[in-house]
């Protein structure tokens, strides 16, 4: 009996979408309620909107305004029209940054959608000592990115532990931190490594919702673990996978710290590993930062991430349809 | 539809007001009255140092107590900022009008502040103290295109070159004859790389702007309106580095190296020579004892006969409400007696006239530490700050990227430097 | 009212039901071997995730005079000492910094959990004009590059006279857009019937939110809590910019003082990083049970 209701609950809820899914719809057929509710939702939303509006959206409007000026950190700018945007199109570093940011998304996101889910399944069962493993797996997430950078630079250095191991087993040393492509790959590996625990807990929260009965029904049918994973787990956490895909794409596209720490403040040899956000920082921070140009770059980054996010959501919706 | 347009109108209004308010970082120069520092020394002076509290709290507490004793109507509030993010902190405070009264700066930080009218012109306000300081140090906070000097010179530093005698020996080089000219340096570097099968590099990083300066390259034109480091001598230096890189005489991570990572390479003994300061000796002893046993010390190679000087200064906020007290305090901290006392706390060098003739900086006692101190003090008397104050962080990146491209052979040294000079000059002009 | 309570227990039975379920044995065959394999995998991941940090730990325990730069590198300290930890506490007021961080992080957890849950519930469960706009505002806010707005945020703080206060540190991130979206996703996943029934019984929106919806999303709330804590604990640039007095500095800012102007003490820096990470690991160890109320629980215990 319990199982049945649970299954029904599933079916009624349907695939969960993020964030614009059509299924997250309030009580159907209760049209009359709507009027009464008009104030309540805004009361619920008020604190969030106030903070987000006041401290993110409103300041961003001034970023947009600045992108049309030649402002510096300490000097007010004059209106220069689209000059900053024009400059950007001809800036070779901008294109390098865009390429790297996109490569980062392509390289890191698929791994960040799948691996943390597997990890979540691995630590989900209550077996002796599991609390220790869970906390341990979360360490890379809680360690500050600076520490993570230090540790990995030490590991991947010409004279680091990994090269010492490679030498010991007869391979030569690999110059991970000297070559632009290897640097980018190394930075991606660190991003994935640090992201595993982060997205793992998002999956765990979602998995906690998957009714056990579903699995058991499947097990009774004689399905193996792989099939159970594909037919029960994946569909049940699909909306979360989309969420993780969206979040990790945005984060990967805006990557800064890992590349900065591994490839140095110039973004690799000759700037070949620059990412877009790195460029924003290089150009805009400091006392003589070119705030105008950096703002134009920020606006472009913003528009591109928005596009990326919509793309992910579109892909999800098409699957639903 | 109606609602939409109203929303759009509101958004536009917001845009305009914010564009106006955001960059309004105080009317330069005018605010806070005249530049005069004459008047009664009274009120609370906020004094900001850059990462000095942790190790020198006692010293500064003493200086402040002395000052407050001498000027009973004045109080000093001391704040200290951590190592990282200092330029960002200054930017926010400058934009928000919350800059402290006396601020620890280096010339490259002082320049934009002076240009925005936030730094007091001390030539005017405190010109009478000029004679107390080394001329080069006083001039180091003079800004191209601006009249005057914008910070009291504070402590100076310069560094010897450290080298690893053991690695020299293994490469068949004389450990007691380190290179003293660039030609020797380049030759020894190639020998080192060949002998070690490209495992040991002589140098850990590519040339920075100071290296161009030491090599004798003219960095800017006299008016300070254009960069000139693409002159033949600059191209020559870069050509040499390109050859070093190809021979394996530069560390494989040299293209992305920073001061810290270069230091680490030297401590790991995979790089044979590295610039440093007297302070590094203590580090070697603690963290890399096997290196310390083999440490060699020599003067930094240069073609100009002048060492590079790093200088810190104390700027007075032009909008300070307690200007007389602020100027008096900034002078007090940087006066001969207090700088000398600071120099005895840690190996820095006073910028006051005559201090470097003190026996503390001239007499050797046979220890390495003293030897480095004496040598550094001697070279400081003629040293110059090679880094142009106009070279912003972004321009430094431009130069680094150009150097990397040339060294990797993706561009000829000439073309790379030409591009870099054009870009830096463009950035200078848009500023 | 009693109907509402009753409904809630039914809702729990459906969603986070693992806890209340009688323990069931899995098929005994084939299950036996799995834990061994699982442990092997766990150990492999453990080596990958924690291994790299052992170096920091080891450096922080190394005594003076030990060569930190040997090749091949040595992971085991030869003269183990806790002196570096004492050293950190001696040269910076590390406990004061930690207390400030704790205040900021705790406030950030409370405001984020409350604010994000409220907004997320409204977005997922209420129908009103402007819902899409509100949702879009949160998505947009999440995408704004922080680098570009930091100085503007500081100027706002200054206008509010909140610069150099801990409140100023907390405020801009006190309800994160991403957390709102996480909560919305969680609420959207709950079945409707219970709330519908409660609605029919006359429960107000607030009652449905507090008594039915909120208890069912404890897992996601725990996620939001830990993200909020971590975000506040690790943040460096913003507290640095807002705060001026050392007495108000948070731990990340304060630990940066360990990097000397003239000489770096690697051992102290390493000890500092360990001090910064430990509280987060403890917090996670405490919260982790909330993440695991589903499938696996009880399967072995019984």
UniProtKB/TrEMBL annotation, chain A:
CDD domains: TM_PBP2. Signal peptide: none annotated. Its main location: membrane. The keyword Transmembrane applies. It is a multi-pass membrane protein. Keywords: Cell membrane, Membrane, Transmembrane, Transmembrane helix, Transport. Gene3D superfamilies: MetI-like (1.10.3720.10). Pfam families: BPD_transp_1. Residues 1-26 are annotated as: Disordered. The chain crosses the membrane at residues 37-58, 102-123, 135-155, 181-208, 229-253, 291-313. It is found in: Cell membrane. It comes from the Bacteria. Residues 98-312 form the ABC transmembrane type-1 domain. PANTHER family: ABC TRANSPORTER PERMEASE PROTEIN (PTHR30193), LACTOSE TRANSPORT SYSTEM PERMEASE PROTEIN LACF (PTHR30193:SF44). Belongs to the binding-protein-dependent transport system permease family. This is ABC transporter permease. It comes from Streptomyces albospinus. The lineage of its organism: Bacteria, Bacillati, Actinomycetota, Actinomycetes, Kitasatosporales.
From TrEMBL, chain B:
Residues 1-26 form the signal peptide. CDD domains: PBP2_TMBP_like. Keywords: Cell membrane, Lipoprotein, Membrane, Palmitate, Signal. Pfam families: SBP_bac_1 (PF01547). It comes from the Bacteria. This is Solute-binding protein. It comes from Streptomyces albospinus.
From TrEMBL, chain C:
InterPro entries: MetI-like, MetI-like_sf. It holds the Pfam family BPD_transp_1. It comes from Streptomyces albospinus. This is ABC transporter permease. Gene3D superfamilies: MetI-like. The chain crosses the membrane at residues 36-55, 104-123, 135-156, 162-182, 212-233, 268-287. It is found in: Cell membrane. Its main location: membrane. Residues 1-28 are annotated as: Disordered. It comes from the Bacteria. Keywords: Cell membrane, Membrane, Transmembrane, Transmembrane helix, Transport. The keyword Ubl conjugation does not apply. The lineage of its organism: Bacteria, Bacillati, Actinomycetota, Actinomycetes, Kitasatosporales. Belongs to the binding-protein-dependent transport system permease family. The keyword Chloroplast does not apply. Residues 98-287 form the ABC transmembrane type-1 domain. It is a multi-pass membrane protein.
């Amino acid at each position: 009996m319990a199982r049945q209701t649970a299954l029904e609950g599933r079916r009624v809820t349907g695939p969960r979408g993020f964030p614009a899914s059509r299924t997250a719809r309030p009580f159907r057929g209760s049209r009359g309620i709507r009027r009464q509710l008009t104030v309540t939702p805004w009361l619920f939303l008020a604190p969030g909107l106030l903070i987000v509006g006041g401290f993110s959206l409103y300041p961003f409007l001034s970023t947009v305004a600045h992108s049309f000026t030649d402002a510096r950190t300490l000097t007010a700018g004059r209106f220069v029209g689209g000059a900053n945007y024009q400059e950007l199109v001809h800036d070779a570093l901008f294109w390098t940054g865009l390429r790297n940011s996109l490569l980062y998304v392509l390289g890191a996101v698929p791994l960040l959608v799948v691996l943390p889910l597997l990890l979540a399944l691995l630590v989900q069962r209550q077996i002796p000592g599991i609390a220790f493993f869970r906390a341990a797996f979360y360490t890379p997430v809680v360690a500050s990115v600076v520490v993570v950078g230090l540790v990995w630079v030490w590991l991947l250095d010409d004279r680091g532990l990994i090269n010492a191991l490679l030498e010991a087993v007869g391979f030569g040393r690999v110059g991970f931190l000297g070559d632009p492509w290897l640097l980018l790959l190394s930075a991606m590996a660190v991003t994935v490594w640090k992201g595993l625990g982060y997205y793992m807990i998002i999956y765990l929260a979602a998995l906690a919702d998957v009714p056990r009965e579903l699995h058991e029904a499947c097990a009774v049918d004689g399905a193996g673990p792989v099939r159970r994973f594909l037919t029960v787990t994946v569909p049940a956490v699909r909306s979360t996978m989309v969420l993780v895909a969206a979040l990790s794409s945005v984060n990967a596209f805006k990557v800064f710290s890992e590349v900065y720490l591994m490839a140095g403040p110039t973004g690799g040899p000759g700037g070949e590993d620059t990412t877009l956000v790195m460029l924003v920082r290089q150009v805009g921070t400091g006392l003589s930062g070119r705030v105008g140009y950096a703002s134009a770059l920020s606006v472009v980054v913003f528009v591109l991430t928005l596009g990326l996010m919509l793309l992910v959501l579109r892909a999800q919706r098409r699957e639903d349809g | 539809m109606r609602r939409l347009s109203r929303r759009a109108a509101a958004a536009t209004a917001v845009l305009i007001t914010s564009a106006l308010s955001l960059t309004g970082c105080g009317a330069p120069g005018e605010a806070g009255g005249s530049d005069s520092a004459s008047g009664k020394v009274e009120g609370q002076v906020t004094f900001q140092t850059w990462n000095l509290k942790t190790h020198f709290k006692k010293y500064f507490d003493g200086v402040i107590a002395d000052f407050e004793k001498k000027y009973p109507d004045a109080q000093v509030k001391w704040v200290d900022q951590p190592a990282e993010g200092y330029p960002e902190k200054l930017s926010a405070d400058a934009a928000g009008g919350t800059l402290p009264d006396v601020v620890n700066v280096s010339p490259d930080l002082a320049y934009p502040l002076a240009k925005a009218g936030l730094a007091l012109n001390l030539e005017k306000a405190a010109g009478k103290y000029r004679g107390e300081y080394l001329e080069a140090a006083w001039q180091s906070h003079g800004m191209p295109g601006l009249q005057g000097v914008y910070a009291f010179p504070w402590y100076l530093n310069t560094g010897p070159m450290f080298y690893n005698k053991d690695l020299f020996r293994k490469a068949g080089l004389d450990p007691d004859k380190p290179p003293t000219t660039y030609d020797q340096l380049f030759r020894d570097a190639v020998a080192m790389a060949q002998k070690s099968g490209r495992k040991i590099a002589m140098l850990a990083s590519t040339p920075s702007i100071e290296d161009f300066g030491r090599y004798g390259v003219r960095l800017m034109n006299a008016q300070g309106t254009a960069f000139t480091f693409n002159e033949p001598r600059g191209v020559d230096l870069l050509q040499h580095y390109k050859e070093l890189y190809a021979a394996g005489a530069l560390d494989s991570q040299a293209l992305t190296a920073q001061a810290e990572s270069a230091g680490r390479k030297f401590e790991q003994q995979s790089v044979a020579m590295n610039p440093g300061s007297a302070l590094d000796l203590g580090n070697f002893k603690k963290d890399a004892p096997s290196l310390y046993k083999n440490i060699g010390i020599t003067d930094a190679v240069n073609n100009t006969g002048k060492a590079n000087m790093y200088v810190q200064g104390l700027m007075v906020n032009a909008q300070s409400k307690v200007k007389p007290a602020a100027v008096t305090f900034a002078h007090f901290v940087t006066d001969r007696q207090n700088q000398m006392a600071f120099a005895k706390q840690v190996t820095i060098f006073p910028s006051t006239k005559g201090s470097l003739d003190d026996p503390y900086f001239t007499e050797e006692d046979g220890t390495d530490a003293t030897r480095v101190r004496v040598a550094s003090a001697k070279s400081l008397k003629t040293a110059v700050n090679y880094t142009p104050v106009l070279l912003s962080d972004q321009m430094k990146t431009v130069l680094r990227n150009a150097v990397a491209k040339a060294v990797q052979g993706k561009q000829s040294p000439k073309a790379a430097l030409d591009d870099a000079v054009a870009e830096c000059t463009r950035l200078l002009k848009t500023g | 009212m009693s109907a509402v309570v009753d409904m809630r227990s039914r809702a729990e039975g459906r969603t986070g039901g693992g806890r209340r379920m009688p323990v069931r044995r899995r098929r005994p065959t084939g299950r036996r071997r799995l834990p061994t394999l699982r442990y092997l995998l766990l150990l492999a991941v453990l080596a990958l995730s924690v291994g790299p940090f052992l170096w920091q730990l080891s450096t922080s325990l190394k005594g003076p005079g030990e060569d930190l730069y040997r090749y091949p590198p040595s992971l085991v300290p030869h003269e183990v000492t806790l002196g570096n930890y004492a050293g950190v506490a001696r040269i910076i007021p590390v406990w004061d910094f930690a207390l400030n961080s704790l205040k900021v992080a705790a406030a950030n957890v409370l405001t984020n959990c409350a604010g994000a849950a409220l907004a997320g519930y409204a977005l997922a469960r209420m129908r009103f004009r402007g819902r899409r706009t509100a949702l879009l505002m949160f998505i947009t806010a999440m995408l704004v590059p922080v680098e570009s707005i930091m100085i503007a945020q500081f100027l706002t703080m200054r206008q509010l006279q909140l610069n150099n206060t801990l409140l100023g540190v907390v405020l801009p991130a006190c309800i994160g857009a991403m957390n709102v979206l996480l909560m919305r996703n969680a609420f959207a996943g709950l079945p409707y019937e219970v709330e519908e029934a409660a609605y029919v019984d006359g429960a107000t929106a607030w009652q449905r939110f507090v008594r039915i919806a909120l208890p069912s999303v404890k897992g996601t709330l725990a996620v939001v809590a830990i993200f909020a804590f971590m975000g506040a604990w690790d943040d460096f640039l913003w507290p640095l910019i807002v705060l001026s007095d050392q007495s108000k500095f948070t731990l990340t800012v304060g630990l940066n003082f360990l990097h000397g102007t003239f000489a770096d003490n690697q051992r102290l820096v390493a000890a500092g990083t360990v001090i910064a990470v430990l509280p987060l690991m403890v917090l996670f160890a405490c919260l982790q049970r909330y993440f695991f109320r589903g499938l696996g629980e009880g399967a072995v215990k019984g």
